[in-house]
Every structure is written in C-alpha cells, then in structure tokens.
Amino acid sequence: MLATRGPRAAILAAGAAFLLATSACGTTDKPEDTAAPQVRLYGTDGNMLNSFPGELKDRGNLVDGMKGTTPLTPLTEDFKERLRAVDPDLKDFLYAAEAYDAVVISALAAQLAGSTDPAAIARQIVGVTTNGQRCTEPKACLALARAGQDVEYRGPSLSRAGFTDVGEPATASYATMHFDNQKINDAKTEFVGAGDESGASTKLPPKPKKQQGGRTDRGDGSPLILGGLLPKTGDLALANPPLAAGAALAVREVNAAGGVLGEPMVWIDGDDGTSVAVAKATVASHIREKVHVIIGAGASGISAAVLPDVVAAGRILFSPSNTDSGLTRADDKGLYFRTAPPDSLQGRALADVMLRDGPDRIVVVARKDSYGEGLQETVRAELERAGIGADRVKLLTYEPPEDAQAAPVDFTGLAREIKAYGPEAVLVIGFAESAGLITALDEAGVPIRH
C-alpha cells in the first residue's frame, strides 16, 4: 500500500534522524566495503600472441579484454599466404616480417660486398637500407646488387625508413592489440607509427662489387651460410613459429632468385632455448660450422649474453626480435644488427594505450632481465612524463626461468602484493611464463576486467 505524502515525509525524516543518531554513536557492526577495484591487464610483444591463452590452459578466458602493443607493420595478405605456405599451422605473424628482412638484408649485403667475409658484409648492411635504388623484392634487389648498383631495400617490416648508423630501424610501426574470446581480435587492431625518418643513416657504404658471369670464384667464400639462433624451446618458444617461418621464406625466395654470389644460401638451424647456456652452445656450434651470419637471438637478454662470443669469433649477430634499448649502445665492433625497433619507441606506444583507459594506480611487472627491466623503465618514464607520478606506479620484477627444464615461477607473493596495492591496471612484461602471474592474480581474488 502506498503511503500518502504527509506520513511518508514523516517516516523519511524519522529514518534520517535515526541514521544520524546511529552514525554519531560510531556503530561498527557494518563491515567496510573493501572490494578491490577491477583490474585491466596489459601485455607486450612477449605475450600478445594467439598462442598465449593456451599457456593458461583451462583459464584462457582470463586474457579476454587484455590489451597491449607489439612491433608490427600491417602485412599484406600475399605475404601472409607466402608464410603459410612455409608453415600451414601459423597462427601469429609477430616478427615474421622482421625475420624475413634480416635474412634478405644479409643476403644483399654479402652480394654487394662480393664476399661472405662477415666484416665485409657488416660494412654493407646499413647501406643496404639507405641511399640506393629502391627495391622491395629479393629478385629485383639481387639483380641490382649483382650489377654493382647500390640498393635501398624496403621489405615488409622496413617500409618507411632505413637503419640508423648503429644498425637498427630509424622508424617503427606498432600494433595495439586486444584479446577477445581467447584470441587476438584483428578487427580491433590499430597501427601507429613511431620514430623519425631523419634518423636513418646518410653514410655511404663501400662501393659494391659487380658480379662477373654466373658466379664468382671460390675466393669469395661462397656459399653464404646463415645460422638460426631462434627460440625453438623455452619461455619464448610461443613466438618461434612466425620467426622461423619468416626466415625460411626469405631463404627460399633468395635462393629462388639465384642465391648469393652464384650459390644457394645455406641455412643451419639452431635453438637459443630462451637460455644463455643453450644459446652459447648453439653459437659455438655455428662458429665451428663456419656460419657467417647468425640470425637471432629471440630475447634481448640472450643476445646480450652471447654477443661477446659472436664478436670474438668475428661473426655477425642479426636479431629480428631484440627490443632492449640498451643494445643500441652495445660494444659490438659493428657486428650486431636488428630489424626490431628499440623499446624506447615501444614504451611510448604502450604508455599511451594504458593512459587512454585513465587508470589511477598502475602496476608494471617485468621479467628481471634486460628486456623486461629496460621496457619497464621506459614505460615508467613515459607515464611520469604524462603526469602519473611515482606514488601512482608500482614496479615489480621476477626472476625468469633459466631454461625450459626449470621449475615454474611462483607468482603467489607478487599476486598478493599487487592485490594489496589496489591498482586499476597491471602491465605484464614477460613471455610464456607470465601466464602464471595472471593465474596467480585470479587465485588471489583480484577481479580481472574483461
């Protein structure tokens, strides 16, 4: 039954008086609302992959709603189909273009140098991407190189500008990606450019050597031998299929175009294991096999660990996926190159993605290695530049597994610490092992926003 206006007003007034009286007495019978805020997850190139939800097994749905960035150029359907011809089961394309370009650039540099001597190849690599006749396919580029003409290679990952003086991309493209229904939702993917074309090298490489006849003599050291140092095993193994497909496609297409110095280019497979020990053993094997250019490693920390061995042996290390900004300043004697852009560029894109959602408190969790801590610091600096002070950002790290046989990381303590901090955003900088953190957050009762 509805009350009339007069009695109803009296009832409300009496109720208000009662509430004031009880609150004045300091009643504590009612518990405080301590519900944690919903947390949105963010990721990076190490976990924003279609294969990543599988690492969470029956909890793959926890990644739904997760956002992140990764170095990625819009790829043509033709290039994707060529990759699938190499690997019909390919689900991701992360760093496939960079692997392809690393192999093609190495081949062109050797052809222009007229030699497989790593030092001679290294002197040509930056120049292959700048200040010559522009070409986009191995066949056309090799024809120019054989004729003794400088080339300016533009491949699927290197579309805007060439390399800087230190042998890394002057510009980059990043993709903002979203997980929906336990896979990357391509319809939501956005691309943003970064870097400055003016940063590309303007130095002229040594004069190219024109190939005489169908092939040069054996004095050129042919055939050119490339060795893989890619993450076939370990925590970055989920990123190996596109890396391997990109490299294999490039070898196939270079050889279909006549090879290098009149000989088919040779590829010797190799695993970096996402492990320093495994990678060092592979590098030693490649050196014994007289490999000229090593394509890898997958992880920045692995490359940093093996680079002294590669340099001491006078070989080239050319990574398609290293992003640690610290490698820009590596003591490499001019023998280290990469087609992946440094994290100084990715950090800005990643911070922007998070800031769009307006979180008040942010946790950034990273692998305790050069990749994780380097990107973590870059993101922190970008957030600070945007007005998110240290009192609103918590930085946490964890020791990654040493190799594929190591025990899983125990994220229980980190999950509790994150819950106690009460963030609205958690950025996870890691590889396959970072799935364990997401599971631990769920088990700790952290409400993940989908």
From TrEMBL:
Signal sequence, renumbered to the chain: 1-26
Residue ranges constituting the Leucine-binding protein domain according to the UniProt record: 226-447
Region feature (Disordered): 193-224
Top-level taxon in the UniProt lineage: Bacteria
Annotated keywords: Signal
A Pfam family: Peripla_BP_6
Family from the record: Belongs to the leucine-binding protein family.
Name this protein carries in UniProt: Amino acid/amide ABC transporter substrate-binding protein, HAAT family
Organism per entry: Micromonospora halophytica
